[in-house]
Amino acid sequence: MTRVQERTTPIRGRVLRVHRGWLSLRLDPRALMVCLLLALGAATAGVFGMTTGDFPLTPGEVVNALLGLGDGPTEFIVLTLRLPRVVAGLVIGAALAVSGAVLQSLTRNPLGSPDFIGFTHGSATGAIVVIVWCQGSMAEISLGALAGGTLTMVLTYLLAFSRGVQGFRLVLVGIGVSSLLIAVNLYLVTQANIYDALQAQAWQTGSLNGRTWGHLLPLGAAMVLLLPLALHHGRRLAVLEMGDEAAAALGVRVEPTRLVLIAVSVTLCSLATAAAGPIAFLALAAPQLARRLTGAAGPNLAASALMGSLLLVVSDLAVQRIFAPVQLPVGIVTGAIGGLYLVWLLAHEWRRGR
User: What are the φ/ψ torsions at residue 166 (nearest 5 degrees)?
Assistant: First the structure.
């Protein structure tokens, strides 16, 4: 099992302090440039994504419609039919990437993502129970996913706890719990009627097809509340990467901080899964790609969020263009990209003798 953070990365950038040090922020020019380019790439991909469909549009028509300068039919197609799907890709990608970045930093392991530790599958279990047994609404599915993810987090945390939680042990326990939950999900699908089974099976692939503002409301509210909380704890998260003893010596309350950050990660992952299904490998790959681009120490939460948005929107655009007119789930593309990335990561770490 590979581990990260064994290399020391120099801390770069200038510290800006506001109100006599009440608020301080470190600005790294390279990381800032990477974030700007990722945001520009995600916005560009989003505009091109809205040009694709049964009624093709030009990028100029899409931009005019977004600015309120288009004609009625064009504004209806862009603002009502296609914009929710693009915003879903941006928000869900950011949520999964931040969730993965937090867990990978806490476990100090590139495999410590919600996919491997089982939180994604636990959220899927909760959502499938609501779909199959209750035929619930979108809000009820979100609550089911959040409950499933939270119960999985509690179970994994308790099983891994022994005088504190070590990242390596958390990953190993999480892999076991994840395998168990995959079997439970398959069993639940076999117990459903044919309509619910097809709905649950299609949902498990992860898709942005037919997403509306209603799908995004719970996740959007969670992002507004939890993303600032995660950024606020970013410095403590970076200190935790040095190890529990070093963090405690520097004044960080290790277990309470770890619990808060795990709760943030699980909530974001659960609500993202409820909105689009378990989209594979995005939480694994996005934080590592962002870390390599910025070359900066720490969890790189902002860069990871933008990388997750870019990857998901580009993947959804590829699905719409390559396989048109068939609408395949975007989880197929992210799974293929993530699988290749995982092979490269394992080969890279093996060559380094880790």
Answer: -90, 140
